């Protein structure tokens, strides 16, 4: 991991540890609630692993907070400006692409604004988010393939799509040139259904 990634991993680890501690949960309880191994939770809290977006979503869902709560300062003013280049990079493609969370609102009505660049051959697949999640995507440059369940949509520069984020979906660069797009994710009622402690494991893998 480079310096920026190291710092982000430590920040995420501290936030996860603080959220877990505020609930009085053990490592095993959080691992069970998130459907992750205890080893993965320990590694995340220690800041020794750069967790995938899927892992972060599992942790944030289990804790009843939005994903932004794990990567941004806990207290924010009503207006928050993020200078160019300072947004946390939460996804890195094998050919140099990036996915950055550039802005977000606080729970319970969480809205996330993402900026993505994907190089040819790169793809990001996402598990279904919580019920009611919706996504909006606008292609700025190149072409983007969006799969929602078994439906395939190939978008060109300037095209946009609205779709269900609570269905399995993926984004991929479509073509021989890099693709850039912005993505908005709306997740309603974050934390409102998580009033008790963890009860059972989901049986899912770490990523």
Structure overview:
The structure is a single chain. With 207 residues, this protein is α+β, with helices and mostly antiparallel strands. The chain is built from 4 helices and 10 strands. The strands form 2 sheets. A 6-stranded antiparallel sheet has the order 1-2-3-10-5-8, with no helix packed on it. The chain has a 4-stranded antiparallel sheet with strand order 4-9-6-7, with no helix packed on it. A hairpin with a 5-residue loop joins strand 1 and strand 2. Helix 1 (3-23) packs across helix 3 (38-46), helix 2 (27-34) crosses helix 3 (38-46) and helix 2 (27-34) crosses helix 4 (53-63). It is globular. The relative contact order is 0.17.
| Mean pLDDT over the residues | 88
Poorly predicted parts: 199-207
Helix content: 10-25%
Based on CA inertia axes, which overall geometry fits? globular
Please indicate the percent range of residues in DSSP E strands (runs of 2 or more). 25-35%
